Amino acid sequence: MLAFSVTTCVVVLFLLTILVVGHRFGLIFKRITMVKKTCILGIGFIVASSGLLPALPIQAAGSMVVDSFDGPITQNEINSFKSYISTLEPVVWPNTGSMQSEYAQGKSGESIKAMGLMYEITHDTAILDRMIYFCDVLLSQRNDKLAAPNGQRTVWTNTIAPVWPGNTTDPASADSANGDSVGHLAYCAKLILQTPSIWNTNVTNGDAYSHGATYKQRALTFVAEADYVANQFLFPSLLDLSKGNKLYFSTQSPYMSGGVFPWNQQMMITYGFQNLAASHAILADNPTLVTKYDNIVQTSLNWFFNDDSAKQTYVDAAGNTAYNWGYNPTLLGGEDSNHASLDVAGFYRAYLSGRYGITAAMMKPFANMYADVMMKGPNSFSGRVDGTDGDGHGAPTTYARSGNLFLTALRPDMYYALANADLASKSTTSMDTFSRFMWAKNQRYNSSDTQAPTAPTNLTASAVSSSQINLSWTASTDNVGVTEYEIYRGSTKVGSSVTTSYSDKGLSPSTVYSYTVKAMDAAGNLSAASNTASATTQAVSPTTNLATGKTYTASTTWSASYSADKAFDGDTTTRWSAANGSLNDQWIAIDFGSATNYNQAVIKEISFQRVTSYKLQSSNDGTNYTDIAGTTGTTIGANKTISFSNVNSRYLRLYVSTASAVPTIDEIEVYNTGGGTDTQAPTAPTNLTATATSSSQINLSWTASTDNVGVVSYDVYRGATKVGSSTTPSYSDTGLTASTAYSYTVKAKDAAGNISAASNTASATTLGTATNLVLGKTFNASSTWSTSYTAALAFDGDAATRWSAAKGSINDQWISVDFGAATTYNQAVIKEVTFQRVTAYKLQSSNDGTNYTDISSTAGTTIGASKTINFTPVTSRYLRLYITTASSEPTINEMEVYNK
């Protein structure tokens, strides 16, 4: 037996430690080929317990499953992902030896990226909630926020910098890997900001870290904190942008002083800046900062794609154009497969954003390189991008590194090879592999449709308040089906909608905004832009407290029970208090989210009147504050109103210069009292119509009113009773009695509370009570895509589920219901919500389930989201929907049958 001494183990430990340190930065080492098993186990224990290697996060139960390499993403696949992440925990100190690495390319960081990608695919808020939780924890672990001994450490900058350190000893290390942490926060914020429908809803998992109760507040916190890291560490200490915005390390950096950034580390930095630019663009709060971030990202991309001195472009053996590049822009070839995968994922991220002019043609040489050069056979991939092999990260692999899964969209011929290499068992515990494969599968399923929808028409914009403009338009059409509409404010995408209306919120008062809308189908085809519509937001009402629902900070805080937000919650029984012993030079500030006009503050010091001198200050960056003229005073008391000349700024703070004891403020309100009084009522709504849609619902619509300032809402009256209100010219009155006549009028209201005259009167009678005759019966189909899309799912009363015909089965497909006995019926409601593919159909009846007869007057072409077919009563045991032709595999979400 080979005997290993303690000295030998120590030497091996030393070499392995170097290997760990060099792992992320691409250093090449010779592998130790013969080490006694017991020594290795001992070394592993020593290294893990001493904190030299990151400890693993708590492992989730089970694994994520893939039902099929083909077809749409299934609910079972989504559920397996949700189940997996529900028990996966983000790593915290001291359970890692390198926080920055754990959240860069470690499991916690890759988990956040995977959740974001899966949310983009599914729009499942439960996935977004878990991503928010991971980002909450990530932010709590930042050096300047976390308590000693794991936080409050001095970094090589000689400051307690806002970073996630890369070691456990002092001085704390910090480098480009911090760009990924910035990117996670900004990516999560961007996903929230792209979903305005949830902005004012409280985050489901609460606010344990006081990052903001609502989704929008959480997003604003993440953006502000990510900006803070950029402004306090990345720009002043880590980066040297003096060479035309190209990414070089500053001479202060101890890691690679004055050196050029490797490509994989450029991806870390640009990941953060790219998402911050997108977030600020949606908020429209700082166009200068958007330009700054975008310019750095654009420079990095141009350096690779437009500069042949940074890479090689050549024709490979298969006759296709391919790329060969090195670890950084000074090396022209031989990048190892590990770092190449990170590079590819970063470049593809920029390509998908659509912000930087990266085209599919520019990306395809990456795919050609992988398919023609690195793929040597089934489950055999070279270790370097030039087709050669080496050691370490450059060693050959039997699997495809996950960044390359994105490339299957550009070279579909390698899709199955990569799928089988990475997911042969159709299950995995690798978050990045699963999420990127799901993206590839989803893209592949939808890629057969190349026809874009028609452009939306009749776009209108209506300002309903000082911070909100409502949009509406006429729906687009598509050969398959429109899935959503993208909303553009100027040239910036600010959100999306699955209906033909959208509310743009968080705007500045008295400001003109212009909009266009584009339609998108399931394959990602984007229509031309609609007409342009513009509107001017209303002036701020003197009675609007501008401080409500914003973001707040303070110099110090007594405890979580006396945090800064308690001084802005509209409740004088709660309060902010400075920390114990903090009397003088204390402050509390509000971030309005964008530049805001105001000229009055009301401060309430009810519980303890301790302030002896104070002043109000304004700021546009949250760091440099200017005293507001005429706002300095001595005591505040129970209620002090301070009026001053109009100020326009993003931040406002109360600065307490001196106090007799720890200052405590119960409430601060901020107003803009200028603008005069609006006494003019809107015009009356016109063309009111009422349509009964069921036994318990009547839908109303009308032509919008006009107003000298702007209509904010409509009051809906059933007879003489107000039953609801709407911000758009439509309303659904529900909970009604069957077979009953109802009459309605509508009145318009403006921001000042002026109410118009009543509209015309419209009446409708609710439908009679009817029972859906198919519920609980037996069902059949000509063919079925999989067990996730059976015939029964078209009759279960749930429009979110569906039947789909088998792959390749397009024409002469059918689904049927067996009532169990002869049944009379005269109406069918068919819903083709998910994919509108039917181009010819008819209804048929049968008494034996074999011989069917066409039902008169039921044949048609398209079905659409919901089609009601009425016909002369038929009595039969069986009914089927026969699809004669379709543009692709037909899929029916729901079919209902009635006797009315």
Task: Characterise this structure.
The longest helix is centred in the first third of the chain and has 24 residues, at 215-238. The chain is an alpha+beta fold and 900 residues long. The radius of gyration is 31 Å and the shape is globular. α9 runs antiparallel to α10 (287-305). Helix content is 24%, strand content 26%.
Largest sheet: 6 strands, antiparallel
Q: List how many beta strands DSSP finds.
A: 38
Gross morphology: globular
User: Which range best describes the helical content: under 10%, 10-25%, 25-40%, 40-55%, 55-70% or over 70%?
Assistant: 10-25%
Indicate the mean pLDDT: 87
Short description:
With 900 residues, this protein is an alpha+beta fold. 24% of the residues lie in helices and 26% in strands.
Topology:
Elements: H1 6-23, H2 37-50, E1 64-65, H3 75-86, H4 99-102, H5 107-122, H6 125-140, H7 178-193, H8 215-238, E2 239-240, E3 248-249, H9 263-283, H10 287-305, E4 312-315, E5 321-324, H11 337-353, H12 360-374, E6 375-377, E7 380-381, H13 415-423, E8 427-428, H14 431-446, E9 457-463, E10 469-474, E11 482-489, E12 492-497, E13 501-504, E14 512-521, E15 533-536, E16 551-554, E17 576-577, E18 586-604, E19 611-619, E20 626-627, E21 640-659, E22 664-665, E23 667-671, E24 686-692, E25 698-703, E26 711-718, E27 721-726, E28 730-733, E29 741-750, E30 762-765, E31 778-781, E32 803-804, E33 813-831, E34 838-846, E35 853-854, E36 867-886, E37 891-892, E38 894-898
Antiparallel strand pairs: 1-8, 2-3, 4-5, 6-7, 9-10, 10-13, 11-12, 11-14, 14-15, 16-18, 17-22, 18-21, 18-23, 19-20, 19-21, 24-25, 25-28, 26-27, 26-29, 29-30, 31-33, 32-37, 33-36, 33-38, 34-35, 34-36
